[in-house]
Design brief:
The protein has four helices and nine strands. By secondary structure, it is α+β, with helices and mostly antiparallel strands. The chain has a single domain, classed as Pnp Oxidase, Chain A.
Amino acid sequence: MEHTVLEHQEAIAKLRKFAEDVNICMFTTLTEACELNTRPMATARVDDDATIWFFSNEFSGKTTEVQHSDDQTVYLLYAHPGKNIYVNLIGSCEIVRDKAKMKELYSPVIKAWFPDGLNDPDMCLLKVSAKEAYYWNSTSNKMVAFLHMLKAIATGEQYDEGETGKLEFE
């Protein structure tokens, strides 16, 4: 398996592509009892500086956990088994209440969570500044991957899962 370390703009481009392909991530925070709390979140956008944006309720558990965290570290896990794309990202999170930024990132899909749209007084943004990420990407579909596994078993060669690597943003 090819292992790559990508830095800066190349890493950001790859992150953006993965986030667009998968869109929903498992957004993980730490509770006050130091337990992991994970929930699905839709990615609003990935900026050119590796900032990842999410809409949230200002009074939700995740925003409370971010506010009470010493270093505001969060973990984003993107997975698309159908496309064999997996990303584990570590970043720092802050709560943003900027109405202009909300308007910039807003899409009609957000109404499913916020029926009043941009007029919802509890709406906020979560701004995740990516620190680093690890990814696994196999461009093969499941049938091709299965055939490659069978070939590896038959020939005694190690199975090549595709591309894996580290994305560095700082």
